[in-house]
Amino acid sequence: MNKLISEETLFNGPRFNLKRRIYENVEGKEYIRDYVDTQSASIIIALTSDKKVVFIRQQREISGLEDLELPAGVIDEGEDAITAARRELQEETGYYANNIEYMGDYFASCGYSNEKLYFYLATDLEMRETHYDSDEVITGIQEIPIEECYEMVRNNQFPYANINLGILLYQLKYEK
Amino acid sequence: MNKLISEETLFNGPRFNLKRRIYENVEGKEYIRDYVDTQSASIIIALTSDKKVVFIRQQREISGLEDLELPAGVIDEGEDAITAARRELQEETGYYANNIEYMGDYFASCGYSNEKLYFYLATDLEMRETHYDSDEVITGIQEIPIEECYEMVRNNQFPYANINLGILLYQLKYEK
């Protein structure tokens, strides 16, 4: 690995920080790597007893979309990814997961962010109540049969990478 | 959608910019959305005639890994995603794709980046020559049978979300 020379913080924001690292390559030449320093997130495939996936509908300012998303959220400081998964699922959908299983964790954007995405499967769901974060705009909940979800992935109907990955991980790991 | 009040650039970097938007919600309360303003990227599943997927091995400073990746790269200003896919594949692996097919495009990180990932399947490959970017550290090329790739996804052996998604998109769209 090339040699890390220095790291400085360029910006501290409410949701993420920006850092700059200087590296030296094998020829002794220095170069810059800026990156987003951010908390990681848990993403949940919540499957009802009749094999429907629970989605939320949320406004996203940056994509400009109000579309279906998997329940997901930032892992708080000192919190386990699995605890965050259970908490976010209930906050956003009202469902408490009596059973929750790890499916995998991956870097979201290998070039410029240290964010990891932790995927969980939640089953044996029990309806309790929702607690939205004050700055989230969740405008609905929708349950879609898993077979229909596969068709929606095939037809590129989900705009966010993590939805497609979550559904296909479930298919690979639990339906084959 | 909540109302956009203003946008300013907080930082201009060599690889991405940082922007701040102020929105007003339905109660008239203002809130901040910082985001990474960056070019989108093309990602290629390059499949040889004997059904092996072409990987590169690359040093990534931010993840701290030197691991397998799919050939991928930024779409240049004014360039089509498909042209970038073909160019990056050849630059990084030496393979020219006589056939290239769109598989889907998705937002990489829906909360804080405008980056989209364009996935392509490249087949009918012809070995020409590589042209690495000066600041990339590609340390090898490896071809892995597609069936083995599925097992590697199942066992969480690929650390980056986009590899797993690319392989599973191929499986869903071409092998079922």
Provide a brief overview of the structure:
Two copies of one chain form a homodimer. Chain A is an alpha+beta fold and 176 residues long.
Structure description:
The structure is a homodimer of 176-residue chains. Chain A is an alpha+beta fold and 176 residues long. In chain A, 20% of the residues lie in helices and 47% in strands. Chain A contains three helices and ten strands; from the N terminus they run βββββββαβββαα. In chain A, strands 7-4-9-8 form a four-stranded mixed β-sheet, sandwiched between helices. Chain A is elongated. At the A-B interface, β1, β2, β3, β8 and α2 of A face β1, β2, β3, β8 and α2 of B.
Give the secondary structure arrangement, pairings included.
The structure is a homodimer of 176-residue chains.
Chain A: E1 3-12, E2 17-24, E3 30-37, E4 41-46, E5 52-60, E6 65-69, E7 72-74, H1 81-93, E8 95-107, E9 116-127, E10 138-145, H2 146-154, H3 161-174
Structural class based on helices, strands and sheet pairing of chain A: alpha+beta
CATH class of the largest domain in chain A equals: Alpha Beta
How many helical elements of chain A?
3
What is the subunit organization of this protein? Answer: homodimer
Could you give the order of strands across the largest sheet of chain A? Answer: 7-4-9-8
| Element-level helix/strand string of chain A | EEEEEEEHEEEHH
Instruction: Output the radius of gyration of chain A.
Output: 18 Å
